[in-house]
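Quick question, first post here. What does this chain look like in 3D?
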Amino acid sequence: MNAPAMQARISRTQGWRVAVIAALIGLVVMLAATMAWLVGYQVEAANERRSLEAAAREADARCFELATRREIDLCRAANAMRSSSAK
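> Answer (accepted):
Ran it through. Tokens below.
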């Protein structure tokens, strides 16, 4: 083959390789950003869940200060209904 034809073929191949590598790098950056967002979202959700569970435990603890077993059971049932509707 002559030199200009060989050079054009090499140039086309390199252009294709560069495009594929650029697309892969873009994909990796996008995946990294998505993972960072997902981890942040999961941390937020876990913190919110912990605070809701702590509030439910406090409410249950206040129920045990009531006088009768029936009042305690009614209070805990009401708390369970409130915590299940909050989810």
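The mean pLDDT is 87.
The longest helix spans residues 3-63.
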